[in-house]
UniProtKB/TrEMBL annotation:
Organism this protein belongs to: Acidomonas methanolica NBRC 104435
GO MF annotations in UniProt: ATP binding; metal ion binding; NAD binding; NAD+ kinase activity
InterPro entries tied to this protein: ATP-NAD_kinase_N (IPR017438), ATP-NAD_kinase_PpnK-typ_C (IPR017437), NAD/diacylglycerol_kinase_sf (IPR016064), NADK (IPR002504)
Binding site for NAD(+): 50-51, 120-121, 150, 158, 161-166
Reactions this protein catalyses: NAD(+) + ATP = ADP + NADP(+) + H(+)
NCBIfam families (alphabetical): PRK04761.1
Keyword Disulfide bond: no
Predominant cellular place of this UniProt entry's protein: cytoplasm
Protein name, UniProt field: NAD kinase
A single GO cellular-component term on record: cytoplasm
Amino acid sequence: MSGGYGGSTKRLAFLAADTPQARELRQKLVAAYGDVPLIKADIAVCLGGDGFLLEAMHRVLSHNIPVYGMNCGSVGFLMNPAHEDDLRDRLARAQPTRLHPLRMVAWDTRGTAHEALAFNDVFLFRQTRQAAKIRIEIDGRERMEELVCDGVIVATPAGSTAYNLSAHGPIVPLTANLLPLTPISAFRPRRWRGALLPSTAIVEFFLLEAGKRPAAAVADFTEVRHVHRVMVREDKSLSTTVLFDPDHGLSERIIAEQFIG
């Protein structure tokens, strides 16, 4: 095969979200460049929004192929512009960004363990009108005896511009080797803004009064209800490569996002 990501012999698999715009673009691209099943592809081209790209990143994890996103959604922070011209040339010039997922293990109140991966974030959130009460341990050491809140987020650097940012958490550069830990509507301690943790940290949440104050744990699009303990860590043994146009690199976007009013 030729060099770069988009040589003429590269086999492409086109994945489209279930929207008219994405389906129409997929038809045009398949007609122009062909299409193979994901298992036979060298590159997965994802047509949709950021959420659909996250799903695609999970799908390609076992295939060890890069993903190139084309924005057919709304925000499209992780996507490239959507047009069908010169796709192979764009792929050949694309800049790779390697992303590691968070691994979540959540134990529900019946003692069942649930495991899931997250390229964006893992968060806990209250299930009822009552605030959750959460004890936080980092690497086996208690750091907060009781956080009373709507929830709490552990984000990857790539995910730090998503829910984490909406909850007033910090944006983290991809090369920082840090994980932001951010409370959601903290009631006590009211002024706690969260923490920046080393990417090697093992974060554990213990739900206090789990029966009275139930909470759910979410890893990207996997939700576990009625949890009483949740462990989160970055899994360096796994990664997915996401491709970006030279003028739309993810590192640059993360920096630029910090200067938007």
